[in-house]
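Schema walk-through. Below, the input block comes first and the output block second. Nothing else is stored per chain. Lengths vary across the set, and this one has 152 residues.
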Amino acid sequence: MRTKIFIGLAVLTGLIFLFDGEISAHGTGYKYSELKAAALEFMYSTGEKMSYCKAEVFSPKDEKFAFQSGRTDEQGRFSFVPDSEGTWKVTVRDEEGHQCTAEINITPEKNVNVNAYNQGGLLGGTEILIRSLLGVSIIFNIAMLIYRKGKS
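--- output ---
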């Protein structure tokens, strides 16, 4: 039995050396890119950075499926490399529902012009309504607790 295993390993080793140039694993690498990136910084109206928020880039060719997605860095920065001219959209959202969208116009010379607009606070401007309802709910619940205590 050991002889068969030894012969099998010897044949396998021989085949590996025989096809050494043709059979090899692929590796990885990198190079510095000369491409122009569109770099943006996102922040709240208070000036606080939108750190680690979800970011999606939509190309002028396809506004339904994201060209790129990721997260802003600690400083609220996000960048991407556009592959065509036209108006690109970058939307950044936090976990509380705040959202900001930047429109980036890429010219044939790969120049970048940015127009950013804030889409309101929570869920497109409903933040005040939600906070008001929450406040009314808290007051109502406290009143019901006091009413029930007085009844018992």
